User: Which sequence fits this backbone?
């Protein structure tokens, strides 16, 4: 076996339990996922299947109850809250279904927010934020606030904010959930382009098979477990 | 990290101008109230000291009767002119000895009449109070001896009776006597007790005794002590002399009192200072309430901005960065409120001082204290909401609607 390439994320027998005793609810029941750098992975599954919990763990917002999560070879479970925050600001970008931009704040200010926490100077911040906005096709919209932008444009600002730090992994939680088909396709085109041209690893949760088809690999969740690939093919055939 | 927090806090304030303005209103009012109270109190204190200084700094007042606590005298025999003569003769440290008797009376000139205080005394009355004639002259010795029907009037009386007319040489009537105005005094303004010092008519003591009072009584003797001489020692000498003259035996208490104006000054300034402190304390409570207002709004704002805090945490803000941002926000808001309060208070103080006829005394230290205190209020009351914001779980916060 050649381990020259370290997986960007690796889950080993991860479980997650919420609550205690009789009220305990097991959201993940031993999940193994390995994602290599540069992959574009779609995550599917019915609600309650554990995919959101898994995304939270992959995004270092949460830690496994048991099992290991290695991010670029580093055990995340042992990190403190602040260490995970630093890991997020350096290596992870988030895109949410509801855009989650700061309202009454310009696109440029929204995009440069992660850079402020990273401690960049104002020149660097503006430079990088403009580049990121240009990369999602929003050059010239820097001074508009979310209220003045369409849903698709807001989501593109959100993507710009996620990629402005040049993260290793972009986590997208139903990024097209609130958009119509043509806007969705625009967003998917941008994500595909980012994946190809900048080599950003993308992990995307989606309900829509059309959107999942943009990804090169799909992981299905069911009842807190990853469904093995041969079963999916079997189900698809049935 | 601090500058980043400041930047983010300023953006947050700018995003919610109305809410920010309402938040600081309490602080503005609190700071303004404290400064106005203390500034006006300082003005009153200054006024009291100035007025007492204008009364004559080394003034002692001898009044008949025992002192039964502040302002209460038990009746006793009045003094006589001879007492004053004896004081002037036997105590060389006195530069002026003014025996005084007075009556309240209506004075009439033409159609105008005015109720005022008629004081009978000698020229030492003016000397003791550092008072000079603005126009005309004071009494001559022969006029004093004869008890001539002549008077020196204060500015208020002139204004009420004569308007802008020159009063010198005219005759005014007080009861049955017709009195020539020979002098007009300089203005002294309001006294410590709030009475108008210029509202008086001075006539020779003998004229008052013979023509108005119909007796030989002297009600007060005012004496002025030479500069550089201890007033308390002179006070003792006066007491010794007066006891002798009033035939008091060794174990009898004084049936008169000698008051040092300096003591009265101290007492009055002490009183105004206590009042200032009291009013300041009441105002400080409103500042505290303003602080609680900030905490209130910040707490609401944390709930309202839960999702936003979730975003910040998700994209990599540290707990302490969120904490600092909220703290800086509260501190900036409250110190800005403090600044607005200071400006408002200074404007209000200048206005009120002129309305209330009190000198405006700029007190830099209270302004500084009020500012520091307002900033501190923001920090203290901002801490709890800030802590609450920083402790949020990003997953929960992002799910918050």
Assistant:
């Amino acid at each position: 076996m050649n381990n020259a390439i370290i997986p960007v994320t690796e889950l080993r027998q991860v479980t997650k339990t919420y609550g205690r005793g009789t009220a305990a609810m097991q959201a993940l029941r031993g999940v193994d996922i390995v994602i290599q750098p540069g992959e574009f992975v779609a995550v599917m599954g019915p609600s309650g299947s554990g995919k959101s919990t898994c995304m939270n763990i992959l995004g270092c917002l949460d830690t496994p109850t048991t099992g290991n999560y290695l991010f670029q070879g580093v055990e995340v479970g042992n990190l403190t809250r602040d260490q995970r925050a630093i890991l997020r600001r350096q290596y992870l970008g988030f895109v949410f279904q509801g855009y989650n931009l700061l309202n009454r704040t310009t696109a440029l200010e929204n995009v440069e927010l992660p850079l402020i926490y990273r401690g960049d100077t104002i020149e660097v911040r503006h430079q990088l934020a403009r580049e990121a906005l240009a990369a999602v096709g929003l050059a010239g919209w820097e001074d508009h606030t979310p209220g003045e932008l369409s849903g698709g444009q807001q989501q593109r600002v959100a993507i710009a904010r996620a990629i402005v730090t040049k993260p290793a992994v972009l986590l997208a939680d139903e990024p097209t959930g609130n958009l119509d088909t043509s806007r969705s396709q625009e967003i998917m085109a941008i994500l595909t382009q980012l994946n190809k041209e900048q080599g950003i690893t993308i992990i995307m949760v989606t309900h829509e098979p059309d959107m999942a088809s943009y990804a090169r690999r799909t992981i299905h969740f069911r009842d807190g477990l990853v469904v093995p690939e041969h079963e999916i093919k079997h189900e698809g055939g049935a | 990290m601090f500058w980043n927090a400041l930047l983010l806090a300023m953006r947050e304030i700018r995003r919610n101008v109305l809410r920010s303005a309402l938040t600081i209103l309490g602080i503005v009012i609190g700071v303004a109230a404290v400064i106005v109270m203390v500034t006006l109190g300082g003005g009153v204190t200054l006024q009291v000291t100035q007025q007492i200084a204008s009364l004559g700094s080394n003034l002692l007042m001898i009044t008949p009767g025992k002192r039964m606590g502040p302002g209460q005298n038990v009746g006793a025999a009045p003094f006589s002119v001879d007492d004053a003569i004896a004081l002037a003769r036997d105590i060389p440290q006195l530069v002026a000895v003014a025996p005084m008797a007075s009556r309240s009376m209506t004075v009439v000139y033409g159609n105008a009449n005015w109720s005022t205080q008629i004081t009978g005394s000698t020229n030492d009355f003016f000397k003791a109070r550092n008072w000079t004639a603005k126009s005309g002259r004071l009494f001559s010795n022969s006029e004093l001896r004869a008890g001539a029907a002549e008077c020196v009037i204060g500015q208020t009386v002139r204004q009420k009776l004569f308007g802008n007319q020159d009063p010198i040489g005219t005759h005014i009537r007080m009861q049955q006597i017709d009195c020539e105005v020979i002098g007009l005094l300089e203005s002294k303004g309001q006294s410590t007790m709030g009475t108008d010092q210029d509202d008086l008519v001075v006539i020779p003591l003998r004229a008052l005794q013979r023509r108005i009072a119909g007796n030989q009584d002297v009600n007060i003797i005012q004496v002025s002590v030479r500069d550089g001489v201890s007033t308390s020692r002179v006070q003792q000498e006066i007491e010794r002399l007066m006891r002798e003259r009033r035939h008091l035996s060794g174990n009898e208490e004084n049936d008169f009192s000698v008051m040092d104006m300096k003591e009265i000054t101290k007492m009055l300034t002490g009183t105004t200072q206590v009042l200032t402190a009291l009013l300041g304390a009441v105002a400080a409570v409103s500042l505290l309430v303003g602080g609680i207002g900030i905490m209130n709004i910040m707490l609401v704002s944390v709930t309202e901005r839960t999702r936003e805090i979730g975003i910040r945490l998700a994209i990599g803000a540290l707990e302490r960065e969120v904490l600092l941002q909220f703290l800086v926000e509260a501190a900036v808001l409250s110190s800005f409120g403090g600044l607005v309060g200071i400006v408002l208070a200074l404007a209000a103080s200048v206005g009120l001082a002129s309305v209330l006829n009190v000198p405006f005394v700029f007190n830099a230290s209270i302004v500084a204290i009020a500012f520091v205190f307002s900033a501190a209020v923001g920090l203290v009351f901002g801490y709890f909401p800030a802590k609450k914001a920083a402790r949020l779980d990003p997953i929960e916060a992002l799910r918050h609607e």
